[in-house]
């Protein structure tokens, strides 16, 4: 299953800085460095814990959100014949691999079978 709203490493790091307090979706998006509509289209629609005031405005607790995120988006474990596609935001099968070597770095180039993006997977670092 492809989950929308997976954060990159920098954004995930910023999650750790969220406080045990209520954020508006705008504030939360600014803290993490994402577009505000990602808060609604991904997290709210996936059922992230939130509070509403009497006028229906949404507030999200930073710490609770962080824990919810970690449970909802577990770290990917890729199989040996899989690589991560940043466009599809999921692991995909390595398709027509080209094995390369450069300065001790062994990696394989492939093309995402779903979207056609060129992908690189580092296999090993030889000394
Ligand atoms: Zn793809």
Quick gist of this model?
This protein is 28% helix and 28% strand. By secondary structure, it is of the alpha+beta class.
What layout of secondary structure does this protein have?
Elements (H helix, E strand, L loop, with lengths): L8 H7 L6 E2 L1 H8 L3 H9 L6 E2 L5 E4 H11 L9 E4 L4 E4 L4 E5 L2 E7 L6 E8 L2
Antiparallel strand pairs: 1-3, 2-3, 4-5, 6-7, 7-8
Bound molecules: zinc ion.
Structural Rg: 18 Å
**How would you describe the shape?**
elongated
Bound molecules: zinc ion
Count of DSSP-assigned helices: 4
Report, as a whole number of angstroms, the end-to-end distance: 38 Å
Nearest-integer average pLDDT: 90
Under CATH, the topology of the largest domain is which?
A: Arc Repressor Mutant, subunit A
- List the domain count as a whole number: 2
The share of residues in extended strands comes to 25-35%
Q: What do you see in this structure?
A:
With 127 residues, the protein is an alpha+beta fold. It folds into two domains: 9-72, Orthogonal Bundle (Arc Repressor Mutant, subunit A), CATH 1.10.10; 82-125, no CATH class. Helices cover 28% and strands 28% of the residues. It has four helices and eight strands; from the N terminus they run αβααββαβββββ. The strands form three sheets. It has a three-stranded antiparallel beta sheet. A three-stranded antiparallel beta sheet has the order 6-7-8, with no helix packed on it. A two-stranded antiparallel sheet has the order 4-5. Helix 2 (25-32) crosses helix 3 (36-44). The termini are far apart. The relative contact order is 0.14. The mean pLDDT is 90. Zinc ion is lined by residues 85, 87-88, 92, 112, 114-115, 117.
